[in-house]
Write a structure and sequence with these properties.
By secondary structure, the chain is α/β, with parallel strands linked by helices. The protein contains seven helices and 15 strands. The chain is globular and about 60 Å long.
Amino acid sequence: MTPRIEPFFDATTGTFSYVIHEEGGVACAIIDSVLGYDQRSGRISAAGADQIADYVRQGGLQVQWHLETHVHADHLSAAAYLRQSLGGKIAMSARIADVRQTFSHAFDLAPASLQATDFDHLFEDGERFLIGRLNAEVISVPGHTPADLAYRIGEQAVFVGDTLFMPDIGSARCDFPGGDAQLLYRSVRKLLALPPQTVLYMCHDYPPDGRAPVWHTTVQEQRERNIHLRDGVELADFVRMRTRRDATLSLPQLIIPALQVNMHAGELPAAGDNGIRYLKIPLNTF
């Protein structure tokens, strides 16, 4: 069956979220939803997430899944917020445990919090599941982080997370803890071995001047035109380029709040005795 796909773009973080459902059906999945966060004031905004919720309600849809492609470092996930109002299960890679362990010291995580109990389901590579009558498959694509997943929904739609960007932008960084340029290269080659007409849906776009944001491309276009990973680019060349480029990049502005929230399925920290929630800022750590 062919899925119906509705994109939502958060211009502040350059992030695409998606609602996917079958034509004529009511079951749907939400991929990589965004919760707004103003770093200066510490205020949370659900305006973008509410647009997704409105679309779901107006279409008479029922959320089965909130799918996370990885632990995002550039925005807060709205999965927990949307689960509360729309239902559905939050799912991501079983390797979230590795990510939590990596950052356990930086955020002083209690041993009990290293277990991924905030998520309703943890996917293994190759796992299959359903969105209504739509077939879906999990593809492990580590490299950007250890816990990156792509989701193949139907025959020709693949949501790639932070592996590939549009062909004129290239590929994701690999310098976060647990990142690995060699693994990313192999993950991308796995995706680009899919049939040429397969449509790849981006998690981000950072368009150059003169181009509007674009949320999808094809395997064939990536193989022909991706500036970092087109056909003919060898592993050693990619690793050399990626390593040099990553060394010039600043950390994402929201990495500290995003990691704390997204490692816990988008759940905000519990309120203190005064009723206020707090995020930690580790000094001289990142």
